[in-house]
Write a structure and sequence with these properties.
This protein is an alpha/beta fold. The chain is about 30% helix and about 20% strand. It folds into four domains: about 5-50, N-terminal domain of TfIIb (Single Sheet), CATH 2.20.25; about 55-125 and about 320-485, Rossmann fold; about 130-315, 3-Layer(aba) Sandwich (Dimethylsulfoxide Reductase, domain 2); about 565-680, Beta Barrel (Barwin-like endoglucanases), CATH 2.40.40. The strands form eight sheets. A seven-stranded mixed beta sheet has the order 5-4-18-17-16-6-7, covered by helices on one side. Strands 23-27-24-26-25-30 form a six-stranded mixed beta barrel. Strands 10-9-8-12-13 form a five-stranded parallel beta sheet. Helix 3 (about 100-115) packs parallel to helix 18 (about 465-475), helix 4 (about 130-140) crosses helix 13 (about 290-300) and helix 7 (about 205-220) runs parallel beside helix 13. The longest helix has 19 residues, at about 70-85. The protein binds iron/sulfur cluster (SF4). Iron/sulfur cluster binds near residues 10, 36 and 39.
């Protein structure tokens, strides 16, 4: 095939690249301007890897044995039918992923609700952007991670990054921050914090108090944008009733950040002609994640930033299709176009597109963590199908998740590598990779991108769309209800999304092939798209943004005598999410081949540990064995571990599954732990 212009398979920046066979070259595209990170450069490796799956497999006497596609699909369809016959429609569950294309996410939601009639579908985006999404909906009435193009950041005077480390997680992004005065909020001195003029390092789980303290300093300093608050928002008085008591000195006692630094941050933001506040997982992955993000949005609103060209609030989405993946129906409570599953008008509209009765559609189901917790339990699902996710590594309290998987009657995993979750399955279905199929993704700025087929897949693999088609037919669905061609699915998706918040109805493959930059909503065929949202009005019925009253409550679990330290988890440059892909790429895995625990040397030595030793990081839920890495800049009561590794190296063996009450996001970013040598000395 000739060289094809496409996009990176990994994160939500969706850097432009060209593929000639499996050879990657960077491409000049607005978000990356010719740059790629190490993951992008090496992303072609897996296309030719001998480790990829090319044959369906069935577990026979404990081992996975190759079988034909017909056999595998017949077997899966029969098991799903039998399970539902014995235990009801909700006994079969589906778990999707934020890396799936829009077409796959859409068809997966339709498959669950129409072909299976189950309410039990959710996806790993719950573990990623759900808190920012929930807070965005509360404040603005719509959730588009960045309601402005990434390139707008170039003109900012000041950018505050809360819990974001793009210098490590999406390096090409940082070129948009060059020349900008950066304020970085992070308990760790990350590579991004090194770029900042002001690094605010709150104690883990206290971001909300910090945001309240800065907001208080804004008001106290006379910087409240009163005309903006009057003209474009509601709810300031209710919000201020709480924030008024968070003077910086009080916030300093909770966060450890000096009141002077809070005032300096407030002054910098207020003095800027153009300023942005951006959040990411560090502040979002908490049991108070929605409130945390709400606090940062309150700060942005008090300064009059959102809905103004050159300023704003945004979320740095993580997974490749983290944005589109949460818009089209693989989420437990959602229908395509960011419609609510419990909205009668939305049900009528989407059921009409699907050619079914609205009453036949199930209602909302369990969120991801709750779904995994219910597997194999009384009244819980007995069979699970997983697409594009590796929950054995990525879910909180992951050994418990693994145990739950083993209690299922039937587990099916569709993947292109034998992930740790696939290795436990009764049936493994080998599917195509990103460059072997067409599909659209929606990047972190809400721009819809066409990722084009650049390679012919090896014999033996099929696309996820083919899998859903084959199963739907075997489950008695009409032949054409589940198309296999991505463009055909997209044509249906755009009609289903019409009139929704995420309206794609004016987008077509032809427009995307022609290179048009289309940010949703795109409500008509000749609509130019909406690169900047909220310029005239926010998406609430009254057109106003809402301040949301939020109060600091702190982490779900605090250190005590038995678990005296706090642990936080995150990513490294070389790996992506659960590492199922990047751990197979030598150039990446050789650099970071195993989990490590970053710890202050004094803390390590007190536990009898030296650099390079194996340490046990233990919480109330489990323990991880990790190699000690000294970090002089780390707070003495904090340890950090990356979460990309399997087995006993899983950071998620100890993380806290406490959930945010709104987003159902687990508290990945803070829990109480102890540190000891492997022989148990502390
Ligand atoms: Fe790929 Fe993200 Fe790296 Fe860009 S920053 S090359 S999209 S992983």
């Amino acid at each position: 095939m000739p060289q094809v212009d496409t996009h990176c398979p990994y994160c939500a920046l969706q850097c432009g690249m060209s593929l000639d066979g499996a050879r990657v070259t960077p491409r000049d595209f607005p978000v990356n301007a010719g740059g790629l990170c190490q993951k992008g450069w090496t992303s072609g490796s897996l296309l030719t890897s001998p480790k990829r799956l090319t044959t369906p497999m069935l577990r026979v006497n404990g081992a996975l044995e190759p079988v034909s596609w017909d056999f595998a699909l017949d077997h899966v369809a029969r098991k799903l039918r039998e399970t539902q016959k014995s235990h009801g429609p909700d006994s079969v569950a589906i778990f999707g992923g934020g890396g799936l294309t829009n077409e796959k996410a859409y068809l997966l939601g339709k498959f669950a609700r129409v072909a299976l009639g189950t309410s039990q579908i959710d996806y790993n985006g719950r573990f990623c952007m759900s808190s920012a999404a929930a807070a965005g909906i509360k404040a603005f009435g719509a959730d588009r991670g960045m309601p402005f193009p990434v390139t707008d950041l170039k003109n900012a005077d000041v950018v505050l990054l809360a819990g974001a480390n793009p210098a490590e997680t999406m390096p090409p992004f940082t070129q948009h921050l060059r020349g900008t005065d950066l304020i970085v909020v992070d308990p760790r001195r990350t590579p991004t914090a090194e770029l900042a003029s002001l690094h605010l390092a709150p104690a883990p789980g206290t971001d909300l108090a910090l945001a309240l303290g800065i907001l208080h300093a804004v008001v106290e300093g006379g910087h409240l944008n009163q005309s903006y608050v009057d003209d474009r928002t509601s709810g300031f008085a209710e919000m201020w009733r709480i924030a008024a008591s968070w003077w910086p000195e009080r916030a300093e006692r909770v966060t450890g950040v000096s009141a002077a630094d809070m005032r300096l941050a407030a002054e910098k933001l207020a003095a800027a002609r153009n300023a942005y506040i951006l959040t990411a997982r560090g502040t979002e992955q908490h049991a108070t994640g929605t409130a945390n993000v709400g606090a940062w949005i309150n700060l942005a609103l008090s300064l009059g930033l959102p809905g103004r060209t050159g300023s704003g609030y945004g979320c740095l989405t993580g997974q490749g299709n983290g944005q589109g993946g949460r818009e089209h129906g693989q989420k437990a409570d959602q229908l395509p176009g960011y419609r609510k599953l419990d909205d009668p008008a939305a049900r009528e509209h989407v059921a009409g597109v699907w050619g079914v009765d609205a009453d036949s559609l199930p209602g909302p189901g369990r969120s991801a963590t709750e779904l995994l917790e219910a597997l194999g339990q009384e009244n819980g699902p007995k069979a699970l199908m997983v697409f594009g996710s590796n929950v054995v590594v990525s879910a909180p309290r992951s050994q418990r998740v693994q145990d739950r998987l083993s209690e299922l009657d039937f587990l099916v995993v569709a993947d292109f590598v034998l992930s740790e979750t696939a290795a436990l399955a009764d049936v493994v279905l080998p599917v195509t990779q990103w460059a072997e199929e067409d599909g659209t993704l929606t990047n972190l700025e809400g721009r819809i991108l066409l990722r084009r087929k650049a390679l012919t897949p090896p014999p033996g693999v099929r696309s996820d769309l083919d899998v859903l088609h084959g199963l739907a037919n075997r489950l008695g669905q009409p032949e054409n209800r589940f198309p296999t061609d991505a463009e055909t699915v997209f044509e249906e998706l755009r009609i289903a999304s019409k009139g929704g918040i995420a309206d794609y109805s004016g987008v077509s493959y032809d427009r995307l092939r022609a290179g048009e930059a289309l940010h949703w909503p795109v409500p008509e065929n000749d609509h130019p798209g909406t690169p900047r949202m909220f310029l005239d009005a926010f998406a609430h019925p009254d057109g106003r943004a809402r301040f949301v009253p939020v109060e600091h409550t702190g982490p779900a679990e605090l250190p005590d005598d038995e678990f005296p330290l706090q642990a936080t988890t995150g990513r490294v440059l070389q790996h992506y999410q659960s590492g199922a892909q990047t751990r197979l790429i030598g150039e990446l895995n050789d650099v970071v081949p195993e989990v490590f625990v970053e710890v202050h040397p004094d803390t390590a030595k007190r536990a009898g540990l030296e650099e390079g030793d194996r340490a046990v990081v233990r919480s109330r839920r489990g323990e991880t064995v990790a190699k000690v890495r000294f970090a002089q800049s780390l707070k003495p009561d904090l340890v950090f571990l990356p979460f990309h590794f399997p087995g006993e190296q899983r950071a998620n063996l100890f993380t806290n599954p406490a959930l945010d009450p709104v987003s159902r996001m687990p508290e990945f970013k803070v829990c109480a732990v102890s540190l000891s040598t492997v022989d148990g000395a502390a």
